[in-house]
Amino acid sequence: MKNKFLNIMRYVLGFVIIGALVYKVGLVKIADTLSNITAYALLSFILIYIVSFTFSTTNIFMLLKCIHKKPVFSNVLHSFVNAWALGLLLPSKLGDFSMPFFLKTDSIDLGTGFATVFVDRLISFFVIYVFASFGVSELGKNFLLNIALVGLFIIAVITLFKFGFVKKIIGKFFVNKYINLNGFYETLVLYSRKKRLLAFNFLLSLINVLLSTLVIYIFFRTYGANVNFLTVLFIFSMVKIVSLIPLTPGGSGLKEVSAVYLFGLAGVDNGITIGVFLTILIFNYLTAFISLCILKKPKSQQPAHV
After folding, report:
1. What is the pLDDT of residues 71-108, one digit of tens each?
2. What is the domain count for the chain?
């Protein structure tokens, strides 16, 4: 009952934050901004999302292939879309970690699935973290501090893999207590030896971040904002970091309020910023609904070992 109440309050908080922003900026002003949307912007959104989904699925698919699993690309795509859609309803990025349960269709055990998603998300987070650090530098003019933060992040990741802290944490809180994650740490060790594959994953993750930024940039230009691509890249990465705070479903509300504030520091009109992010929010939910309707449920191969 307590968890149900907290989940309801998260939705309420997200709606309240967005409602307060709309009220402060002005509904008429936002509506005027949204009226400038073009077919070109919508088509770009659709095409970029298709490419981005394909790259994200490829990353998971290749990670599984390299450890001698036999995933089916269409099944991995279906699992990714399910997890992404669920992520719009769950706090922070918890939806991403529902993917291992969907991957069971391809006989991927949960330990391997969680390790695979963990590595993929860690690389993606690192890419975003680096750009967000440069964003802080651009807005706060503290370049050396953020280079140091990036260095500390790298050291922390190396330490986790080298000394097995991940294994201890996972073993203490999950393995044989809630779900069977046997093979989690062993899979991480296997991935740590696949340097070329990790570099390939990094490249696709980088391209994905650039594609996501391109969508935001196109809408900003469509709505009349004079802002350069790098500024959008740095600030959008900062917004993505803020959205990881597990207070609202998919970071809704947190993304919008942080975007309005940060882009405001860069001189972008608040009405345009809230218009852009409301557009993305609406189309994300529409994309999730349409994708789940279009994609067929994958066929099971063999039962996974759970």
Report:
1. 888 888 888 888 888 878 776 667 777 888 887 766 77
2. 1
d(CA 150, CA 136) in angstroms, rounded, equals 12
DSSP bridge pairs for 175? 179
163 part of a folded domain: yes
- How many residues make up the chain in this entry? 306
Tens digits of per-residue pLDDT, 51-62?
Answer: 999 999 999 999
Q: Is residue 302 part of a domain?
A: no
Structure tokens at 134: 């440069």
The Cβ-side half-sphere exposure at 296, using a 13 Å CA radius, reads: 5
For 79, the token pair is 């699992």
Give the integer Cα–Cα distance in Å for 81 and 287.
10
Alpha helices per DSSP H over 67-109: 73-87, 99-103
**Is residue 299 situated within a structural domain?**
no
What does the block give as tokens for 213?
């930024």
Contact predicate 61/71, CB 8 Å = yes
- The pTM (predicted TM-score) of the whole model is 0.78
For residue 47, the enclosing domain spans 2-294
Q: Any idea what DSSP says for residue 227?
A: -
What would you measure as the largest C-alpha separation in the chain, in angstroms?
Answer: 56
**What is d(CA 7, CA 127) in angstroms, rounded to the nearest whole number?**
30
Q: What are phi and psi of 142, to 5 degrees?
A: -125, 70
Report the distance separating Cα 214 and Cα 45, nearest Å. Answer: 9
Q: Which residue reads 């994958």 in tokens?
A: 298
| 226 three-class SS | coil
Q: Let me know if residue 156 belongs to a domain.
A: yes
Q: How far apart are CA 100 and CA 103, in angstroms?
A: 5
Of 115, 55, 43, 53, the C-alpha closest to 85 is 53
